[in-house]
């Protein structure tokens, strides 16, 4: 199920999503450093890639890492721990295409999908709400920032999956 799947972007062509491996770490860490105020460390990614989580990368036709997702799956609940689109691909509907593809896959194994997002990350919040996520909670002062603390908003998406 999590092997490899493709989607088509109107401008960028065929994009491939596949499981990340340790060979992807240099690209993954570079994108992570560019994308977060408090990026994950290499050991976090190594642990996730080695089987703790589902780690998927979105690649261009030239095999450039465009984005990635780290998903935790426990019984019939999934949590999107990380969802990142590299800066050059933001604002081009790449995130929407990737997230939509992930939701379709997760829908086959989970009843709900949760995530946390910085309250100030308006583009991400807009994307999540467009995909049907609803805010279900808030964690005050959750994220450290250079200017103090920032709230985390908790979002959930109910899926159609019915466990046997």
From TrEMBL:
Enzyme superclass (EC)? transferase
So what EC number does this one have?
A: 2.3.1.266
Domain N-acetyltransferase residue range list: 15-160
Which UniProt keywords are present, listed alphabetically?
Acyltransferase, Cytoplasm, Transferase
Q: Mind telling me which Gene3D superfamilies this protein's record contains?
A: 3.40.630.30
List the InterPro entries: AcTrfase_RimI/Ard1, Acyl_CoA_acyltransferase, GNAT_dom, YpeA/RimI_acetyltransf
What PROSITE patterns does the record tag this protein with? Answer: GNAT (PS51186)
Is-annotated flag, keyword Membrane? no
Record-level Gene Ontology MF annotations? protein-N-terminal-alanine acetyltransferase activity
Taxonomy, superkingdom: Bacteria
Q: Where does the secretion signal sit in this chain?
A: none
- Family note: Belongs to the acetyltransferase family. RimI subfamily.
Q: What is this protein called?
A: [ribosomal protein S18]-alanine N-acetyltransferase
């Amino acid at each position: 199920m999590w092997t490899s799947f493709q989607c088509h972007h109107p401008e960028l062509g065929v994009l491939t999503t596949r499981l990340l491996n340790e060979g992807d770490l240099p690209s993954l860490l570079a994108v992570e450093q560019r994308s977060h105020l408090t990026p994950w460390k290499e050991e976090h990614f190594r642990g996730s890639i080695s089987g703790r989580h589902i780690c998927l990368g979105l690649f261009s036709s030239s095999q450039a890492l465009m984005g990635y997702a780290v998903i935790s799956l426990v019984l019939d609940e999934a949590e999107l721990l990380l969802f990142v689109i590299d800066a050059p691909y933001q604002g081009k509907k790449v995130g929407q295409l990737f997230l939509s593809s992930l939701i379709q896959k997760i829908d086959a194994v989970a009843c709900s999908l949760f995530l946390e997002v910085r309250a100030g990350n308006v583009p991400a919040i807009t994307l999540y709400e467009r995909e049907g996520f609803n805010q279900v909670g808030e964690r005050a002062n959750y994220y450290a920032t250079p200017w103090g603390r920032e709230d985390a908003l908790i979002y959930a998406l109910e899926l159609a999956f019915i466990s046997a």
